[in-house]
Specification:
Number of helices: 7
Largest sheet: none
Structural class: mainly alpha
Strand content: under 5%
């Protein structure tokens, strides 16, 4: 799911923010799910990781309500959201480096997943117009999956109806 989100982001809106082949767009919604899934086992740690980006989203809402241009938004995020994301990055690295979290545990794996994708997650701090998340793409993928599932159901129903009809024809001939 996450990798299809990257592909969706890379192809969905190239006119809005042209990307080099090395860029990818943020996936905040996708990684939050991993921490939400293990919150019962690691409540304090997961809450910290989930809440920090919430502050960034509040900052982004401010940029929208103030009608900031992409350049102003980037500058605002660099000033206000950059330190938040730096703190989160430092915290995650220290959890693993200081062995407070076992790297093979579900929390360690979630942290490692996020650290490996840090550059795409923080693209909004370096590229004008980059979104914080890919919710629009996720909704599009969900709709496409739903339509695909619906068409499969229709095809199966059609096949079943045709088979029943053939069976009736066969039975009436005898």
């Amino acid at each position: 799911r996450v990798f299809s989100s990257f592909l969706c982001n890379a192809t969905a809106t190239p006119a809005l923010y042209p990307l080099s082949p090395h860029d990818a767009l943020p996936i905040s919604g996708s990684w939050k799910t991993g921490f939400a899934d293990i919150i019962e086992s690691f409540p304090d740690e997961c809450r910290y990781v989930i809440d920090k980006p919430g502050e960034v989203h509040r900052n982004d809402a401010l940029t929208g309500s103030k009608g900031m241009s992409d350049r102003q938004r980037l500058s605002f995020h660099q000033e206000k959201s950059g330190p938040i994301m730096s703190d989160l990055h430092r915290w995650m690295k220290s959890q693993l480096a200081e062995k407070r979290v076992e790297p093979n545990s579900s929390l360690g794996q979630s942290i490692t997943y996020m650290l490996k994708r840090w550059d795409p997650l923080t693209l909004f701090l370096r590229k004008q117009g980059a979104p914080l998340d890919n919710n629009i793409c996720e909704r599009g993928l969900k709709m496409a999956r739903s339509e695909e599932h619906t068409s499969e159901l229709h095809a199966r129903r059609n096949l079943v109806c045709r088979l029943r009809l053939e069976k009736k024809k066969t039975l009436t001939h005898y």
